[in-house]
Amino acid sequence: MPEALLPAYLLAGPEEGEKDERVAAIARLIETKTGEPPERHRFHAFETRMADLVMVLSNRSLFAKHRLVLVADAQSVKNKADVEALAAYLAAPADDATLVLETSELPGAIDASIVKLVPKPAQVIFWELYDSAKKGWIINFFRQRKVVLEPGVVDHILDMVTNNTRELAAECERLALYVGPGATLDLERAEQYLYHSKEENVFTLFDQLAARDHAGGQEVLDKILLSGDADPQQVAAGLLWQFGRIVKYRRLVDREHYNPEEALGALKIRGKRNQATVQAAAKAYSRGELDTIVALLAETDARFRMGRADLHPLMLQMAVHYITRNGGRGAWKDFAA
Fold first, then answer.
1. Residue 23, CB half-sphere, CA atoms under 13 Å: how many?
2. Which of 100, 103, 183, 201 could lock onto 179 through a cystine, CB 3.0 to 4.6 A?
3. At residue 292, what are phi and psi to the nearest 5 degrees?
């Protein structure tokens, strides 16, 4: 029995690559039903009035039989008028449009009056893959492209690339094209290529913060935010993970008396550049500062979830300032929770 095309879908969770595949499957289903590809529209919830979105969904297109409308960051629909407009549409959706709501969080982050109107079979959570599954995914990706991986390469890719298959696919494709079919990719080439080929991202931002370079950190952060490749919440989560590793490294070295090489090995921190950055950060900040920075970034993430999305870039810039200037201290003293 052919799959039914539903009027609305809710795709939640952190695994962006599998979400992309699901959206592609929905588009193919629409093409099968209508005989032509859908007209696509993409919106970001934090910068879109839901009344405008509903207008796109409700007005028939002159150029296509069906419209596929994607809404990213659906958890940002908080305004009462926006919630009511979207809920009213979902209660009586157009028959020639399909709405896809996306969030990197769980369905509970979206207003309940919206979620209850999305058909249950269309609500799907895409969980982040386990490390073992991600490693298998990478190995299979390169095997299909006839590239042999030397030991350490898979772990280094996972260290350097955001942990979802959308980002992994993009970076692995570039790496495969770089070395070519029939080649062997060693750790040194992978490290060199991934670092130099990437535009500014959470890893190059952390390089600046590891050196306690305030001006450099703000410059890199500005470029990340302007590029639109990562939102502030993703950047903050990446920094929290990076500084969390430094806390673990310092604990092993200072309290459990590992030598630096043993600590790096225990934490599976590979690649000369990656290891040098970790050691630089461990020297640039005291243990107390590192604990305070981790608490600051956790608080920043919590405030992102509660506060207005248009303030997130400013909040992240402030966090970077207090990390490099004050070791994380004093960031929220003038701001009510």
1. 25
2. 183
3. -70, -40
81 contact partners, CB below 8 Å, separation of at least 6:
50, 51
Placement of tokens 């991986």 in the chain: 149
What's the confidence (pLDDT) of residue 337? Answer: 47
pLDDT score at 321: 93
| pLDDT attached to residue 230 | 76
Q: Fold for 131-197, please state it.
A: Helicase, Ruva Protein; domain 3 (1.10.8)
CATH topology of domain 202-326: Zinc Finger, Delta Prime; domain 3 (1.20.272)
Q: Which two tokens stand for residue 103?
A: 């969030």
Could you tell me the mean pLDDT of each successive run of 10 residues in the chain, 337 residues long?
Answer: 87 90 95 94 89 94 92 90 96 96 91 96 90 89 94 86 79 89 91 74 90 92 83 88 93 92 87 87 95 92 79 91 91 56
Whole-prediction pTM value? 0.59
Q: Given this model, what pLDDT does residue 1 score?
A: 57
Domain edges within the chain = 8-125, 131-197, 202-326
